[in-house]
């Protein structure tokens, strides 16, 4: 089944709301630490708990997809998310709060998987994922700008009240249609399950490496800013500006979505990103740091939709999209933990080079498939 091109917007909105916590993770952890009067680092495991919920949602969705008689009710999943967000707002027991966040992560993960698959069914997945990422970045920027004022007025639990209201709004949107198993009009089903298997694995590795390398770089931006004597307030302003550039990157990816030689575009973007990271780490002046951060955010959200879109075009069954979501989230979570201070620059460049090596064969396969489709 192929969806109409107008369905990218509801899927993008659902995906954005599902990723709410991860889009504003620093602000979220700061609010939770103040809510429970604990040290921020001692509560960072709560993000891992929600990540575990996302991961379990991927596994659950994969298992249930094998049974045609069992379907996940999206509206029921949204209602579970609403209840878990509301309950979190008034929960004063940390253990119960952690359980509620696990449930929230599970329900949000199921919503995100349906949204991912809906975007993959668009006529042009590259453009669909680019628009979705732009929507996510705009949504995240709005939360980052608006939540502090709401917290000042309503208190620290305002963040969960906002999450619950936004989740309730998802019930108004049309329900995402479930993917039906099918083969490509130009490819046999056996090709998808056997001949393309190695390329699908490479594609999943590429998504994971792209997220590890970029989230690792993201985690050291504050460190590099501190070396230049940039204040915390100005760091926040710079990151907010970088978010705007990330929207530009996603919009550029949408603009070039119909360009034939995407392989060359992605290679140039990743090589440029290696240069940008080098410039960021070696920055001697504030303007160098600001410029590199903006370019880094632009490139990140320019490359990612193409990688996901290429995978979606190779795997018509849609099974790999579930794992792509899990690996994307997992890569974002572990990226900061694999960075070694004494090997910072070398390690980040190595991760980017590995990302390039993983992405390249994925686009060769896509190019060959596109050529066959035209004959």
Helices and strands, with pairings:
Blueprint: H1 8-18, H2 20-23, H3 25-35, H4 45-64, H5 74-89, H6 94-120, H7 125-154, H8 158-169, H9 189-195, H10 197-219, H11 221-227, H12 232-255, H13 262-281, H14 286-314, H15 319-334, H16 344-374
InterPro entries: MFS, MFS_trans_sf
GO molecular function, one term: transmembrane transporter activity
Organism: Alginatibacterium sediminis
Structural account:
GO terms for molecular function: transmembrane transporter activity. α1 (8-18) crosses α7, α10 runs antiparallel to α14 and α10 (197-219) packs antiparallel against α16 (344-374). 46% of the residues are buried. 77% of the residues lie in helices and 0% in strands. It folds into 2 domains: 5-172, Growth Hormone, Chain: A (Up-down Bundle), CATH 1.20.1250; 189-374, MFS general substrate transporter like domains (Growth Hormone, Chain: A). The model is unreliable at 181-193 (pLDDT under 50). It has 16 helices and no strands. The longest helix has 31 residues, at 344-374. It has helices spanning 8-18, 20-23, 25-35, 45-64, 74-89, 94-120, 125-154, 158-169, 189-195, 197-219, 221-227, 232-255, 262-281, 286-314, 319-334, 344-374. The chain has 375 residues and is mainly alpha-helical.
Task: Give a quick precis of the structure.
The protein has helices at residues 8-18, 20-23, 25-35, 45-64, 74-89, 94-120, 125-154, 158-169, 189-195, 197-219, 221-227, 232-255, 262-281, 286-314, 319-334, 344-374. It is an all-alpha fold and 375 residues long. It folds into two domains: 5-172, Growth Hormone, Chain: A (Up-down Bundle); 189-374, Growth Hormone, Chain: A.
